[in-house]
Specification:
Elements (H helix, E strand, L loop, with lengths): L1 E6 L13 E2 L3 H11 L4 E6 L7 H8 L3 E5 L6 H14 L4 E5 L1 H5 L12 E3 L3 H14 L9 E4 L5 E3 L28 E2 L6 E3 L2 E3 L9 H4 L4 E3 L2 H9 L4 E4 L8 H11 L5 E8 L1 H6 L1 H7 L3 E11 L3 H6 L6 H13 L3 E8 L5 H13 L5 E5 L7 H6 L24 H13 L11 H5 L7 H11 L5 H7 L21
Parallel strand pairs: 1-3, 1-4, 4-5, 5-6, 10-13, 13-14, 14-15, 15-16, 16-17
Antiparallel strand pairs: 2-9, 6-7, 7-8, 11-12
Helix pairs in contact: 1-5, 2-3, 7-8, 15-18
């Protein structure tokens, strides 16, 4: 039996932040490990970097099962294209689509004639069960945790979804399955980058996020020994993909102690909350020696207390300010993200710019508030949402009419980006970026930085949007005072 695991290449890989934040398909690596433990022959392909077309890969490999990952709703159209290609070449191949996005919103696949099952939840148990059913010649109706096509073409559930995995039973990701792609994985100027998971889930309730709903506000942890072994199998630049790092402080301290004997990494990036950093300063001190450069990515989200409340962040703006000071004092790099609400007024943009200047924040990104399918926010916004093209749900397109005229909104949004470190004409020059990478990575860095400059071009966004403009206002770049160099 042959099983093909596919990471599709969504249309978003050339827009917004995507070109300079490209990480390995860690979820598929966990699935590969689970399948290999049962003696299955597995091939993992990342179509973002494959020279061969999916048709050729399917024809040459002749898989019995094709499993397509849709981690984000952006993957849906590209994932369905993979399913169609596989079925066109072999109508008998079993096509399964899974991942966070389709588990949260399986309706995104409604009407597909090329998908045999939607796998809900985590796949380390589900996909091996599918493989056993296919091998035995059984149908998929007895495999728990699936949606399968019903007689009327809609997807209907099989037996109930299994409970969340005990992460103590999860095998280390099959990292060799992506070796041929590893050089492509990057976080801006850090190349190549490995991704590591130490925990799954989130116990908060941010309005815009689907993670906490998927995990029912629970956090589960991998065993310390397993995480240490995975660190040993990874390279010098690490992105820890946990949604809220340093959750569970006692266990996190134990993990830091277990990793202390390993050589320090060149660079490490973790994602955390401002209030967590403020409350656990001693824990951060334990972790800081584990990498020469250690960045914390904060979901800052809003520069005001009212803005944080509207996003259900359950934290005060004072925690944001204190966390920045704590991180800098301990020698961590501070980076993060703010959310730009389409309902922003000009005064809201000005308040954000003032906050950035006051606290010296320029290593920062700006995403547009987007109701992701599968969240309560999406349900609440259905009457206002004008765009249901999933390729536009990359957090850089607007999907409903902004308060400001569309051209003016993007003009101010791009001016916000100009206040970031990515502005080669202001904050950080290209030769300063070049000094931070190895010579063999210079050409790729140059391509990435050139793409980032489109973040500061209003016409770039206006050419992409499907939201209709109001009135006849045009973009006039000279209307906004440029930031100081």
């Amino acid at each position: 039996m042959r099983i093909l695991l596919v990471k599709p290449a969504s249309a978003a890989i050339r827009f917004g932040l995507a070109p300079f934040f490209v990480t390995e398909p860690l979820g598929l690596e966990y699935l590969a490990a689970a399948l290999q433990a049962e003696g299955r022959e597995v091939r993992l392909i990342d179509l973002r970097f494959e020279r061969s077309l999916i048709e050729r890969i399917v024809r040459d490999y002749r898989p019995d099962v094709v499993a397509v990952s849709c981690v984000h709703i952006l993957d849906v159209h590209a994932g369905l294209a993979v399913a169609e290609a596989a079925k066109r070449l072999n109508p008998d191949v079993v096509v399964v689509v899974g991942g966070h996005a389709v588990s949260a919103y399986p309706s995104a696949l409604s009407g597909s004639r090329h998908v045999d099952a939607i796998a809900l939840g985590e796949g380390e148990l589900t996909l091996p069960a599918i493989a056993r059913a296919v091998e035995a010649g059984d149908g998929l109706g007895a495999v728990p945790g699936l949606l399968v096509p019903g007689s009327d073409g809609t997807f209907v559930p099989t037996t109930p979804q299994p409970p969340p995995l005990d992460l103590a039973t999860v095998r280390l990701p099959a990292r060799r399955s992506v070796e041929r792609y590893q050089r492509h994985y990057c976080c801006l100027n850090y190349m190549p980058v490995w991704t590591v998971e130490t925990a799954r889930g989130c116990d908060h309730r941010c309005k815009f996020c689907s993670v906490w709903e998927f995990h029912q506000r629970h956090v589960r942890f991998h065993q310390v020994a397993s995480v240490r072994a995975d660190f040993e199998a990874s390279g010098e630049n690490l992105f820890v993909v946990d949604d809220t790092f340093w959750t569970g402080p006692e266990r996190s301290a134990e993990l830091a102690d277990a990793l202390r004997s390993l050589p320090p990494r060149n660079w490490m990036l973790v994602q955390s909350r401002a209030d967590t950093v403020v409350e656990h300063t001693a824990l951060l001190e334990k972790w800081r020696p584990l990498a020469r450069r250690f960045d914390i990515f904060f979901g800052f989200e809003a520069p005001t207390a009212a803005g944080l409340r509207s996003l259900h962040k359950d934290a005060d703006i004072s925690a944001t300010v204190e966390a920045i000071a704590v991180a800098k004092r301990l020698g961590f790099g501070v980076t993060g993200n703010f959310i730009i609400d389409p309902d922003f007024s000009e005064e809201d943009f000005q308040a954000l710019w003032s906050f950035l200047a006051t606290h010296g924040i320029d290593r920062v990104g700006f995403t547009i508030l987007t109701p992701l399918p599968g969240t309560k926010f999406f349900d609440a916004m259905r009457d206002r949402v004008e765009v249901l093209d999933w390729d536009h749900y990359d957090l850089h397109h607007v999907v409903w009419q902004p308060r400001l005229p569309l051209a003016r909104f993007f003009e101010l949004y791009c001016e916000t980006w100009r206040r970031s470190v990515l502005n080669l004409r202001g904050r950080k020059k290209w030769w300063q970026w070049a000094a931070e990478v190895r010579p063999q990575h210079l050409l790729r860095l140059a391509r990435i930085l050139r793409q980032t400059q489109t973040l500061m071009d209003p016409e770039h966004y206006l050419a992409q949007t499907k939201v209709a403009a109001r009135g006849d206002e045009t973009v006039r770049p000279g209307r906004v005072r440029p930031p100081a160099a």
